[in-house]
Specification:
Blueprint lengths: L7 E4 L3 H12 L5 E4 L12 E3 L5 H7 L3 H7 L7 E5 L4 E5 L10 E3 H10 L6 E3 L3 E8 L2 E6 L4 E4 L1 E4 L17 E12 L2 H4 L1 H7 L3 E5 L4 E7 L5 E8 L4 H5 L6 H11 L5 H6 L4 E11 L12 E3 L2 H4 L8 H21 L9 H34 L12 H25 L5
Parallel strand pairs: 1-2, 1-11, 2-7, 4-13, 11-17
Antiparallel strand pairs: 3-6, 4-5, 8-9, 9-10, 12-15, 12-16, 13-14, 14-15
Helix pairs in contact: 1-4, 1-11, 2-11, 11-12
The structure holds flavin-adenine dinucleotide.
Amino acid sequence: MTNSTPRIHIVGGGPAGLTCARVLQGHGIDVTVHDADDAVDSRDAGGTLDLHADSGQIALEDAGLLDAFTAQARPEGQAKTRRDHHGTVLAEFTPAPGDEAAPEIDRGRLRRLLADHLRPGTVHWGHRLQRVTPLGHGRHRLDFADGTSAQADLLIGADGAWSKVRPLVSDAVPQHLGVCFLDARYDEVDSRHPGIAALVGDGHLFANDGDGRAVILQRNGDGVVRGYLAFRAAPHWHVGAGVDLADRESIRSHLTREFGHWSEDLRTLIVRNDGDYVPRSFQALPAPLTWEHVPGVTLIGDAAHLMAPFGGHGANLAMLDGAELAHAVSRALTGPDPVAGLDAAAGLDAELARYEADMFARTADLAVSSNQALRDFFATTDTPHLPPDHEQEHRDYLARARAYRQDRARRTATEPTGA
Ligand SMILES: Cc1cc2nc3c(=O)[nH]c(=O)nc-3n(C[C@H](O)[C@H](O)[C@H](O)COP(=O)(O)OP(=O)(O)OC[C@H]3O[C@@H](n4cnc5c(N)ncnc54)[C@H](O)[C@@H]3O)c2cc1C
């Protein structure tokens, strides 16, 4: 890196990468984002996300987008019902009026919200990173599948679970957590699937048989319910089970057998979806995962700490990583004492290393507990599987949000920049 403006390239335009780019631009720093998708909405972005007051919402505030989020969010979507496989209600949570601890938003809407607030041309869609080559002195050459290339003084890996940037800093790869699922969707649910609409209500239904099977349904915006039909299984379960994943009826026969002891209304819904099932599985990186800082490169989001979604922390932490990294880069480049006696590259690397240390501390316990929560949820047990106390959980989000802001303000006031 020279003492001129560094060339900053983010690989990945998901919640992490787009938040980072937006906060960097808010600091007046140029950045380019590369994403493999052809456009912001060229693929189904997936289901709903709850953005927590102590993480995702702080990142949105840093991005100047909290009000825009609130205008699109669904606070009523925080509602949750827990049932056993007979359909018996075990616990219910209805958010109080004004509860903004973790409102829901569809991923597609969030992605568009973030992308629409970047300077035109920031995201290079259809740019799939194929290879990264270290060039020395913290610089990297990026080669994309379309034959183009770029050079980065700072390379930010925001490219999710199967990151192509991660191998520059760690050998870790995602591990299968022993649970597979079929992604299902139900359209125009209030008119076409009123039984499902009633079961899901405004928010989420979690049903569990205490023997490794679960149905999780979530109300999304626009009258859609999305579901995860989940069961303990090895990655290529369909081969041994004789299921043709390209044939909806073949999957339905399997699910009818697998969930045969479930109540009729729950059994029925798993074979009444619109469109195809999408087979997926839960994966996580070894946790906690840390590495020694490598000059000129760092990771944010799932690329750094892919974890089970039991706790709903992944996108929240991804966005907070993005915002915190952007602040760290800004401290190194534009702070009152940008390099604090170091040359520009060393000053930036010092801030990157500090970002990484904070990120490891922020995410380690949540990754471990989320992965354990998945194992517990799919364990065989005679004890009814009860949810956490959501009222307390919401109070905790708000208390931690206050503490986070106070801690950040204190650190900004007392710590030297660029060191
Ligand atoms: C079933 C399920 C439910 C979940 N529910 C929740 C929840 O309720 N709350 C929550 O907070 N989190 C949840 N998560 C986790 C959440 O989805 C992730 O943590 C979050 O999307 C991570 O954001 P990211 O930007 O790091 O990665 P991603 O969202 O994976 O984005 C990565 C981006 O990189 C791009 N990319 C990948 N490879 C390349 C390449 N080679 N070149 C260029 N671009 C590339 C991709 O196109 C993508 O746009 C859930 C996950 C799953 C699987």
